[in-house]
Design brief:
By secondary structure, the chain is mainly alpha-helical. The chain has 20 helices and six strands.
C-alpha cells in the first residue's frame, strides 16, 4: 500500500530487479578484482562482464526448488552465460565468496541509493522551511506552554526551530548513510579464508564502498540500527510539524491549516468539515518508522558469527523505512509549502486575554523598580487570576492598581505591555539560524 503513494524512484530501488542487479555488480567486481591478481582468468572476467545477466522470474522459479535465494541467483546467471555460449566462464562466478559477502555488500549499495533520495528530500524540506520562516519572521503569535498562552512569539520562530532541527537531521542522516557505506568479502566467518584482504579492498573500491575493518559472516548490525534510528528521527520531525499544524487548525485556534483543495470533502456527514487529514497521516506513519527502529536494534545481537534472524526483518524494515521516510518528507514539504496562515487570527488570539500574557514583564519591572519580588508576584498574580476567572481586562487592572502606580509610571506600564520589547531579539535569533 505504501509504495502506491510514494515517489516511484524509491520504490524501484527496492524492486527485485534492482536488488539482483546490485548482487550482480558485486559478483562482477569480485571477478574483476580477482582477475587483476591472476586468481580468475582475465578472459573469464571479461566474458562475465559482457554476458552475465538474469531474469527475475527465473530466479524465483529456481528458488522455489532450492530454497536459497543466492544459489537461485547464481544458477540463473550461469544459465545466461551458457545461453551466450560461455558456460566455461561461469565457473568463476561467485568464486571465493559466501552468500552474505554478496548480499551485505549489495545492500550497502541499495542503502546508498535510498539515502541519496532521502537527503535530497531533506534539503528540499529545509529550503521550504527557511522560505516560510523568513516570510513570517515578524508575524506575531502567542507562544504556548502546556497548551496555555505564555508569551508572544512570531510564527517565523516556530518555522525556524523546525528548520534548525531539519539541519541536525540532515547531518545525522548523512553520517548514518556513510556508516553503512561498507562492504565485506571476508568469507563465512570473516577470516579471509578464500579471498585476501587486499582483494576485498579492491572490490569495495570498484563499488565506491569502504571495506569493513573486521566482520563476521555479516557486516555488524549496529550500523543498520543507526541508519534506521536516524530515519526515525527524520520522520519524528515530520510528525512534530504535522502535530503542531493539527493544533493550530483546531476551530478554537485556527491560526493555520493545511491546504484544502477546491472540491475536497472533509466528512461524509458534515459538509462544513476541513480536517487535517494530511497531518494525521504523517503522524500515524511516523509511528511505523519508530517501531521499525526497535526491530533494527533487535537485529544487533546475533548468534555467534551470524544467524539469519536479521535477514527477514531487514527485508521488511529497510524498504519500508526508506520508502516511508521519503514519502513523509515529501508530504511534510508540501504541507509547509501550501500551509494556510492567518496572521489576523494569530493577533486576535494573542489579544484575547487583554494583556494577560505580559504578566511576566510586569513582575520584572516591579522588581526592578524596587518592589520585593514576592510582593510583586502576589499583586500581579492576583490580577491575573481574576482576569482568568472573570474574563476581565488584565492591563486595565494593572493600570488602576495604586501599589503598581506608585512603583511604575504610566509610560513604564505601557512599556511592560509592548510587543516590540518582547520580540526585539527576533532578528538576532534569525541571524543565528540563517546567518547574515
Amino acid at each position: 500500500m505504501i509504495a502506491r503513494y510514494t515517489r516511484p524512484a524509491m520504490g524501484r530501488i527496492w524492486s527485485d530487479q534492482n536488488k539482483f542487479q546490485q548482487w550482480l555488480e558485486v559478483e562482477l567486481a569480485a571477478s574483476e578484482a580477482l582477475a587483476e591478481r591472476g586468481v580468475v582468468p582475465a578472459e573469464a572476467a571479461r566474458l562475465l562482464r559482457a554476458h552475465a545477466g538474469f531474469e527475475v522470474e527465473r530466479i524465483h522459479e529456481i528458488e522455489k526448488e532450492v530454497k536459497h535465494d543466492v544459489i537461485a541467483f547464481t544458477t540463473a546467471v550461469a544459465e545466461t552465460m551458457a545461453t551466450a555460449g560461455h558456460a566455461e566462464a561461469s565457473r568463476w562466478l561467485h568464486y571465493g565468496l559466501t552468500s552474505n559477502d554478496v548480499v551485505d555488500t549489495a545492500q550497502a549499495l541499495l542503502l546508498q541509493q535510498a539515502a541519496a533520495i532521502v537527503l535530497s528530500g531533506l534539503e528540499a524540506l529545509r529550503k521550504t522551511l527557511k522560505r516560510r520562516a523568513l516570510e513570517f519572521q515578524h508575524t506575531v503569535q502567542i507562544g504556548r506552554t502546556h497548551g496555555v498562552h505564555a508569551e508572544p512569539i512570531t510564527f517565523g520562530l516556530k518555522l525556524a526551530i523546525w528548520h534548525e532541527e531539519a539541519g541536525r537531521n540532515l547531518t545525522r542522516f548523512m553520517a548514518a548513510a556513510e556508516d553503512v557505506r561498507v562492504g565485506k568479502t571476508s568469507g563465512a566467518v570473516g577470516t579471509f579464508g578464500h579471498i585476501e584482504p587486499e582483494v576485498e579492498e579492491a572490490i569495495c573500491a570498484r563499488l565506491h564502498l569502504k571495506p569493513a575493518a573486521v566482520a563476521s559472516q555479516v557486516i555488524q548490525r549496529d550500523r543498520h540500527a543507526n541508519f534506521v534510528a536516524s530515519l526515525a528521527l527524520v520522520t519524528a520531525l515530520c510528525e512534530k510539524i504535522a502535530l503542531e499544524v493539527r493544533h493550530l487548525q483546531r476551530t478554537e485556534v485556527r491560526e493555520a491549516e493545511e491546504y484544502f483543495a477546491r472540491g475536497q470533502k472533509g466528512s461524509s456527514a458534515m459538509p462544513h468539515k476541513r480536517n487535517p487529514v494530511t497531518c494525521e497521516q504523517i503522524c500515524g506513519l511516523a509511528r511505523v518508522v519508530r517501531s521499525n527502529a526497535q526491530a533494527a536494534f533487535e537485529n544487533v545481537a546475533l548468534w555467534h558469527e551470524r544467524d539469519i534472524s536479521h535477514s527477514s526483518v531487514e527485508r521488511v524494515i529497510l524498504p519500508d523505512c526508506t520508502i516511508l521516510a521519503d514519502y513523509l518528507i515529501d508530504r511534510t514539504t508540501r504541507l509547509v509549502d501550501q500551509l494556510l496562515v492567518y496572521p489576523e487570527r494569530m493577533r486576535r488570539n494573542l489579544e484575547m486575554t487583554r494583556g494577560l500574557v505580559f504578566s511576566g514583564q510586569v513582575l520584572l519591572d516591579l522588581a526592578a523598580a524596587g518592589m520585593l519580588r514576592e510582593q510583586a508576584y502576589r499583586i500581579v498574580q492576583g490580577h491575573a487570576m481574576r482576569a482568568w476567572e472573570e474574563e476581565g481586562d488584565f492591563r486595565a487592572a494593572i493600570e488602576a492598581d495604586p501599589e503598581i502606580r506608585a512603583a511604575l509610571t504610566a509610560e513604564q506600564i505601557a512599556e511592560a505591555f509592548s510587543l516590540e520589547r518582547q520580540l526585539r531579539n527576533v532578528d538576532q535569533i534569525f541571524a543565528r539560524v540563517f546567518g547574515g
